[in-house]
Each structure stands twice: as C-alpha cells, then as structure tokens.
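User: Second chain of the day. Same drill as before.
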Amino acid sequence: MKILKIVDKGIAFLEKGPVTIKTIFISFIAIVATRYLVENILFGFKTYDFAFLLGSMIQGTFLFFLMAYVAVLTFLILFIKEKPSKLATVLLWGQWIIVLPPIIDKIIFGEKDFWSFYIFDSIQGLFSRFFHFFGDNPSFGITYGTRVEIFLAMLGIGLYIGFKKRSWIKGLTGFLIMYIILYFFAVFPSLLTFLIEGFLGEDIFKIKSSDIAATFLTSLEIFDFDKKSMKIALHFRASLFYTLFLFGNLLFLQFILNKNKFFALLRNVRYPQMFFNGGLFFVGLAMGCFYFPANISKDIFAIMTIVNLIISISSAWFYSVLINDIEDTEIDKITNKERPLIRDVFTVSEYKNYAAVFMGLSLLTALVAGIKFFLIICVYLLATWVYSCRPMRLRRVLVISSFISAAASMLFLFMGFIVVSNGQSLESFPWKIGVFLFIVYTLLIPIKDIKDIKGDKKNGVVTIPTLFGEDNSRFIFSVIIFISYLASIFILNENKLWLSATLFGALNYWILNNKKIKTRNLNGWILGTVFVYGMLLVVISFF
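Assistant: Same format as last time:
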C-alpha cells in the first residue's frame, strides 16, 4: 500500500496541469529540438544545406514524433477514459525518452556507420520481425538506441495503465498495444508501398525490401521539384502521408471527445468561401498545366502534394473563420446568432485553441509541400489577422477591407500555378486573368456584408450596405457584377465569351435583386456562379 501511494503521488505529479495547446506545443518543440540538437552534436554538426535541415528536422523528426504523440494520446483516451489534459501531460513527460536513441547508438557504434530510420521488408519479413522485436541488423533501420526507446515507451505506458487502473491485465494489454502502434510507425513506408502497389493491381506478397527502397529512397522528381538526396526524398515522401494521418487523427480525436463541438465546427465553416478559395487553387493548377504540360505528374506523391495543399488551404480558411468570429462577437449577437461562439458551444479560450491548431496544420501541410507554399500561407494568415483583429482590424475600413480579402484569396491562385510551373515560379502567369479575377473578387466581397447591416452599424463598421441600405446595395452590386462580366470580354480580348458573360451577368443581376433569396445566402449563390464562370473562362481561353 505504501508503494502504491508513492506511485500514485508520482502519477499525480506527472498529470498535474493546467495544460493548453500552447504549453503542449512549446514543450513538444523544446523536446524535439533537444533531440535534434543532441543528434547533430554527436555526429559533428556536419554542414548541410537548408533543404536537408528542413527535411530532417521538420519532416523527418518533428512530424514523425507529433504523429506518434497524437496516436498514442488517442489510444490512451479510448483505453482508460481519463481526462485528455492529464494524459497529454503524462505523454509530454514521457516524450523525453526520444533524446536517448542517438546517445545509445553513438556509445555502441562509435565511428561505425549506422542509420536509424524505418524497416523495409516484405509482408512475410515484417510478420517475422514483429515477433522478434524488429529482427536482426540493428545498425540499419531500427537500431539499438531506437529499440531501447521503444521498449521504455511500452514499459512506461504499461506501468502507467496498470497502476492507474489497478489492473496488471490492462497494463499488459496497454504494453502490447503500444508495441503494435510503434511497430506500425516503424514499418510505415513498407505499409504505404503495399497500399500503393496493391491499389495499382500489383501482388503485394511479391514486394521485397528493394522495391520499398526504390519507392522511398530514390531521387524524387515530381512536377518541377527535384530532391536528389536519399534522406531528403525519404523524409519528403513519408511526411506527405504523416500530415494526412495527423489531420485525420485530430478530426477523429475531436469527434470522440465532443461530437457536439465537432459538428458545430463543421457547420460554421462558411462553405461557399472555402470552396471558392479551393476553386482558385484548382484554376491556378489548370493554368499551370496548360503552360507547363511537361511538368504534369500522376505520381502518387504528386497527388499527395496537392492533397496536402488542399488541407493547408482549408485549415487556413478555418483559422480565418475562427479569429473573425472571436473579433465579431458583438456583431454576431445581432445578425449571426447561430454562430457557435454566440450559442456558448465554445468558450473564447477554446476557440483560440482551435484557431491555433488550424494555423499549425495549415503551416505544416504547406511546409511539407515546399518552402514557397509555406511562405504564401504565412502571408495569408497574416493578412487575415490584420483584416479581422485589433489593433488594425482593417475590415472596418471601406475599400481597403475588400482589397485585403481579395488579395489574400488570390494567393491560392498563385499556389495552384506554381505547383506545376518551372522552378515553382510565376513564369508565364497570365496576369490579365489574375488581375481581372482580383478586381471582380474585390467588388464582390462586400456582398457578404448585406446580412450584417444591423450589427455593423451598431459597431461602427463602415460598409457599402451600411451606407446605402439593403435594397440599394443589392442594386449597386448587381450593376457592378453585370458590368464586370461584360468587361471580361474586352480585358481578356476573347469574343467567345460574349454569350457566357451576358448570361452569367444577367443571372447574377437576377439573384441579387431577387428578394426571395435571403441575404445570408447571397454570397454562396454569387460565389458559386462566379466560380463556374471562372472555370468556363479558363476552358475557353486556354483549351
């Protein structure tokens, strides 16, 4: 009993909070950075270029351990039904064992060559290795240091569960499940190869370790990306799937923790704007494919690059919605009472946590695709911040607010184009189309303000609807958009657009002046028709 009391006190100390997204993130970064620093000190701080440092630190180290951390946290929440905050804190303490492997390997191997990363093997080989604690050859793949790390993680989780639940059967079960989870990550590239080749119709039982190495360790050339280093190529390929796994795991985690909040977030997305932003990305991608057909790639890793960028764009949009809701609370109390923050589904603190998570996801998924995409997303996040948040809160300033919002969305058009373009540049970008779309979007953005007239007036936000009223604003916007459609014919010098421009202009004029269409639905209708016209414009102009 005395031993149990001592252990309970130790567990209570490890579980002690409070813990927030911010403290978890900072602590996690500190631990991973320490691991990376120790590793480089032990191996002489060799001179690497920026691409290698980025690949090994962010893609190869940070993302791997973050993915494992979230997966183990999910397992513990499901298995022992304890407070997530306590489990997250305990796992952070346990995370320090990741510093041990390079130290142990250096002591054992000294100056001999070794490489700790993954296991590449056939299905039969992986099955055998599972029952032999990763098998032989501890100098390549799962090294001695990594095996010690894994065993300590299993032991720590097993003991924690056993003491926590006062059940050694549950402790042993946790010990074994932890091994299965960590083994899954250790053979991750092998499993991905089986999945990819199986999807392509190959016999997965004939796949050997050399086939997996050919998939992950060879020079990577997709679109106009060129990653020749074996380690960089491995990290890049794996990280494209890490982020997808992480994104899905976080969604599942939110779902099992609180379904009400999960669906509240989904209902609050503002889908018309999100799909419009995604549409701009695909329009840019289509233009890039037209100008640089030689760079088009159907490789699975090329597809996953695009998937990561879609997740990045969606997460960035989620972030902008959340911070806008926080800043517009007083306005929403009058005109958007269905918003989750107004209905007290979330506290402001929780909302800020979600905003931080989506900001992190948008940056990570952009970074694994490339540094240029990361920088573009950074600019977008900053633009949405100055648009919505104090002290600037530029959404209060007529014209400038629309200009910033339109410019931010145009960044997604550029992202789509540079995916395929030579050297990830804006070489040959059709600026006529870009400028036209920018002008039209700048003119269209204030339409969303029609539904917020009462709230904006009360809070001193100057918009066209607050100046001219609902009816006059509908008419003003309908005239502007009709003229914009007709102007596209002359700006793009494309006579084939006459019929389409006239029809779409008339349709939008009717939508805006139709009182049966509620003000909160206007934005969706207009953005939808503009997107269809934009796709039609690209097809007619280029194909």
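The mean pLDDT is 84.

User: Great, on to the next one.
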